[in-house]
Amino acid sequence: MIRSPSAFSLYTRFKGLSSKLSAGTFNLSPAMSVPEIIEVLLNKPAEVWVTLIEGWRVEEMAAKLNKELGISESEFLKYAKEGYSFPDTYLFAHDATAEQIANRLNDTFAERFSDELKNKMKAQGLRVDEGVILASIVEREARSDKARTEVASILLKRLKIGMGLNADATLQYALGYQADEKSWWKRHLSNEDKKIDSPYNTYSYRGLPPAPIANPGLSSLQAVANADPSTPYLYYYHDSKGNSHYAKTLDEHNQNVANYP
Are 139 and 216 in contact (CB under 8 A)? Predict the structure, then answer.
């Protein structure tokens, strides 16, 4: 429709409109002139691409949707289900409602969470809802597909032997929004933080928390389904460079922490 990209670029810059054009999907016609196309692009798009990140809480999704689509955060939170709002890049109509978007995320999760994955989780000795909870922890605790599989294996092993999960991510979830950091995930946890009385504090309570702590992507769901609870490791540690280190004993783990800051 734009026969000359260079002329279009020059025209928009000359008119001072370059920074005012909206990204998204628009209804255009080949019969439109350049000024007519620009006039449409200056308005709100009919549809907007929105990326929702793996490991976000529903509150973080709500904030993103509010920014991109003007969706009421409180209204979205009425319908969104933690752990089952699938993170992905979506094309939403500009007039989509909070309920419609929440349903879309939930429906996408149901599509991606196959019967094969569910059956594998059951074979691990987990109920389906427990598998999702564990996947939500893995999503926050690991940074790569390989690390997710290792972390899932270690956490599953801890569950099976009755050891505490001791997962920082669950503690971060329990602590909630950190106003000074403007984040839902507290960066540096203290020993005092580990004393918070919450069923989501896996330093204080054995077993899984009562519900998911975030929304896992497909790779974390797969990591739980394919976990190896016979792993020789019981501990994992991610250093400041993003490298993962595993240990069989607490002494080895402490040595990893000391060796790889």
Answer: yes
